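User: Can you model how 5'-O-[(L-methionyl)-sulphamoyl]adenosine sits in this protein?
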Amino acid sequence: MSEKPSKYYVTTPIYYVNDKPHIGHSYTTILADVLANYHRLLNVPTHFLTGTDEHGQKVQQAADANGITPQEQCDQTVVRFQELWKRLEIKNDDFIRTTEPRHKTVVQETLQELFDKDEIYKAEYEGWYCVGCERFFTEKDLVEGNCPECSRKVDSIVESNYFFRMGKYQAWLIDYIETHPGFIQPAFRANETLGFLKTKTLQDLCISRPKVRLAWGIELPFDTDFVTYVWFDALINYISAVGYKSDEEQFKQWWPCSCHLIGKDILTTHTVYWPTMLKAMNVEMPQSIFAHGWWLTGHTKMSKSLGNVVNPMDMIDSYGVDAFRYFLIAEMTLGQDASFTEESFVKRYNSDLANDLGNVANRVLNMISRYCDGKIPSVSSNGFDSSLEDALWKEAVAAAEEMGSMIGNMKLDASVSMVMSIVRKINVYLQERAPWSLAKQEGAEAEVAYCLYTAAECLRVCAALLYPVMPEKMLALRTALGMADAKPHLGKLAEFGVLIPGSAISQPGALFPRIEVKSVEATPSSLPPKKSKRDEGGAATKKKSGEGTASTKDGLITFDQVMNVKLRTAIVLEAEKIEGADKLLKLQVDLGEEKRQLVAGIALHYAPEELVGKTIVVVANLKPAKLRGVISEGMLLAASKGDTLKLVTVEGDLGSGAAVK
Ligand code: MSP
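Assistant: Here's the modeled complex, given as structure tokens:
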């Protein structure tokens, strides 16, 4: 890994406690956690801060609506955030609440200092105020008379207030952004801020609210009739939490912040208010401010009124924490919007986690059990061609090396997909090397050992690289590979030979059990009769002619009925026995456009390892059914006579997904 910083301090926005957390809050926090995890693995001293924004009008209004005090509103809601972070395996080093004395003191001292320096002054204000955004706008700012940020109605306001001399930093800020290309990321967001700064006059910022209008805030130290504007208060959390004005040593250790992660909705406050505030305070600028896009439901913005807000707790309950974390990181290209649907979640889960990663882990561990006595084998590479192993290992090392710069460049989705491509390469390699065939050859023990050791080593690397995203599952996988110290250290990741020969592997169970897809399209006339008795072989072999749905009296079926049966070629990726069912095998097959799971009554005729790599024929539009509790999403074709059963296979190299007519 390259580009190792000397320290890493990452923050999330502090979340309003007016409502419970949703997927958007979860996303920013998981993102920060993943980045913090990567840096911790690199042995970079890391500090990860999150927290809650507890003052201001939104919280006051929520408290009023709930008939409780604002402090009660904060105390009740903050727990929901903290509980969710715990469930999401978030390992933040600190959690700041803006109602804590350690924060309030710093805000007040800062205000006093700026007031004394004449950076803050009192004036009469006349303008438009948006309650939702808690921001003032001038007449010119409004779009069709409404808030330019959220399009809601704005209120006309005339009152005395205190102002921060933000306007005088306009030229300085333009210059700073232009001369520090990584300061606002992605670059198009920097352009957005610059566009605004270069075309509009930067106004001074109103940083107070008269108590008569809003009492829930930090009192101004120089005028007790006012409280502090919530954004001026909130932004200071990034420094109050790390010792600004209270612990110089701690402050020096962490500030400047490496990365403020924010959603695109709060770009202006972070790239205009915050830098100018810091400048006036004579505090160094953060190294970067990264704005990610929105999670949409399908193509629509998530909103409570539309009822389309995804509840993270529901997702975790249904699919597990690690899978949820994986999906969010893999699916969103940082900077752009992404769409969340349960369907896309299930699709990605089944293809990446169940079929690829889970499958490869199963295969490697099963074969080590079977062919190496359940222990990591000893390796010696003499006497046989190990070019396939060398090539695979090289790919894994290259991925490990590439990781650092990908994380540094915030290409998290690409980094995950890079690791997944290595996972798939392990699968392809196993297919090519076919250790199950080698195991049958006399004198090939060393070759089998070398093959499985290499596959296990590559899997170890993949599990380490995915650990920051899926800590629990990847720890389980590395433990299953016989590692006593399963927690990865990325520093020595790319050394071959970390797994210790002789250490016992274990079976972690299905790491990512396949999610049953309930709605598979099936053409009614091709379905088997409703009451047909399904024995163990029911989903495996086609029914004898005459049985079942024949619609004509003579037992013949029409051409159309034949055409309704969709037969496709499929490649067997994985096969295993089903516990407690002697005749059944569970197969994972590649059907071209998708992967499927089949249950087939062929265990008395085929060993699982014989099947992997074979091209078979499958009824692709059969309604899914459960056999011995295991879902089968199709039926393979086999011919039988007496005690003999042979799979229907395809000659030559047609690949998967070809129509069989
Ligand atoms: N309290 C302010 C932030 C102050 S930081 C000094 C605030 N809070 S918030 O509760 O509204 O949270 C906003 C943040 O939540 C966004 O910036 C973003 O990080 C995250 N998200 C909320 N909804 C989101 C989506 N639908 N999609 C992605 N993230 C969004 O603003």
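A couple of observations from the model: Residues 13-16, 24-25, 27-28, 53, 234-235, 237, 262-263, 265-266, 294-295, 302 surround 5'-O-[(L-methionyl)-sulphamoyl]adenosine (CB under 6 Å). Confidence is low (pLDDT under 50) at residues 519-552.
User: Helpful, thanks.
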